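Supplementary Methods. Inverse-folding protocol.

Structures were first reduced to a discrete structure-token string of length 62. This string, shown here, constituted the complete conditioning input.
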């Protein structure tokens, strides 16, 4: 699976084109439709945001 790359050729959002293309293929059978690169980028950003929020909550209540 292509990784999240900060130091490679990425857009402003930090996701490589390879990662976004891979994510399209992952989500296609789940959603039953072709997604745009923008839709996949938004899903990835939301998942990263959720993970960061959950970590913040965990640290707050430990």
């Amino acid at each position: 699976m292509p990784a999240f790359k900060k130091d490679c050729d990425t857009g402003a959002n930090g996701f490589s084109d390879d990662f976004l293309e891979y994510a399209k293929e992952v989500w296609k059978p789940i959603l039953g439709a072709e997604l745009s690169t923008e839709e996949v980028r938004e899903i990835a950003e939301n998942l990263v945001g959720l993970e960061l929020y959950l970590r913040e909550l965990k640290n707050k209540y430990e």
